[in-house]
Design brief:
Helix content is 45%, strand content 16%. It is an alpha/beta fold.
């Protein structure tokens, strides 16, 4: 018994001859019949003894004692973004498997909002945070955050020196270039996306490097940075047409930008793929619906790995960043 006369988690673990972490995870699991932490027999023993001894868990007190709970905070660039929604599906699924639950908020890619949300989430004594809205031009936030001693990592977007789980976006850009080069095209437009996001920078870098190595001169490549949505794709496509004329092929760093650009081309009397080939990125369900060739990124797997790594970080493990490989899914928009 604890010094106050109440039954503690440590008391239960000692009586059952189990580790406190195992007992804690079983009792904190929302599915009491779950055997993911121990055998079904052991789970039943833990719950039976807890009931017999009138064990009562106080989540707030526990979080104050340990500065940690079984809650994980996730900050997304946008809750309307299909890509991050898919990533979050993976996070939530893995969180449940690991005995955590997650909450998600959107920073709208605004650093001040991210700072405010982070403070609010930390007030709830979370076990850790996953950030999906990192910007290459604002690394100072994470340097400051690291001093707080709370486990965290980045997902989807990377920053030098920060632990992250991403798609290998540079490789994805090269894959797109190699696919379009294989069609014999020699002039290219690039709907580059958001300039401050590593996803955009790395995909564009991989794409242009592959073209350069194939002998395509800079004068045959026009890239415009806007954002990742359909409206931005239209704007960037219009800019490319105004600056360089009609390219033979277009690479968009996001499927939605590619779809917006396709609409703009149609309004200008141009056809995909007859006049312009179009390749997107991420391979969202909408890409398949409109026969858009796209580089498939492992969105849900990124979420699963980021949550698994965060749980390992909370357990004190040393980890390295991971970049998961993409693949091309060829459809009608790039057929010769």
């Amino acid at each position: 018994m604890g010094t106050t006369g109440t039954v503690t988690l440590k008391d239960l673990a000692a009586a059952l001859e189990l580790s406190p972490s195992t007992v804690s995870r079983v009792l904190n699991d929302p599915d009491e019949g779950s055997s993911r932490w121990a055998s079904a027999e052991t789970v039943a023993r833990i719950h039976r003894l807890a009931n017999e001894l009138n064990y009562s868990r106080n989540p707030h007190a526990a979080s104050l004692r340990t500065s940690r709970s079984n809650m994980v905070g996730v900050i997304a660039p946008s809750l309307q973004d299909y890509v991050f929604a898919s990533i979050y599906e993976g996070i939530a699924r893995q969180a449940s498997t690991r005995g955590y639950y997650s909450i998600v908020s959107s920073s709208h890619d605004d650093e001040q909002r991210r700072r405010a949300l982070t403070d609010q989430i930390l007030d709830r004594h979370v076990a850790g945070l996953i950030f999906g809205d990192a910007h290459l031009d604002s690394p100072g936030f994470f340097a400051d955050f690291a001093k707080r001693g709370v486990p965290y990592l980045l997902v989807s977007r990377r920053l030098p020196g920060e632990l992250s789980v991403t798609c290998d976006d540079y490789a994805g850009g090269r894959i797109a270039a190699e696919h379009l080069l294989g069609t014999g095209r020699t002039s290219f437009g690039v709907l580059a996306g958001q300039a401050g996001a590593s996803t955009a920078q790395d995909r564009v870098a991989g794409f242009i490097d592959a073209l350069t190595e194939a002998g395509i001169p800079d004068s045959r490549i026009t890239a415009i940075y806007t954002n990742f949505d359909a409206v931005s794709g239209r704007e960037a496509m219009a800019g490319i047409l105004d600056i360089a004329g009609v390219p033979e092929a277009v690479f968009a760093t996001n499927d939605f930008a590619a779809i917006g650009a396709t609409g703009l081309l149609r309004e200008r009397g141009l056809r995909v793929p007859e006049d312009v080939l179009m390749c997107g990125f991420n391979d969202t369900p909408l890409a398949e619906g409109v026969n858009l060739t796209s580089v498939r990124s492992p969105m849900e797997q990124m979420g699963e790995r980021s949550m698994a790594m965060l749980a390992d970080l909370a357990d004190g493990k040393q980890l390295e960043s991971e970049a998961l490989m993409p693949e091309i899914v060829a459809r009608a928009s790039t057929r010769r």
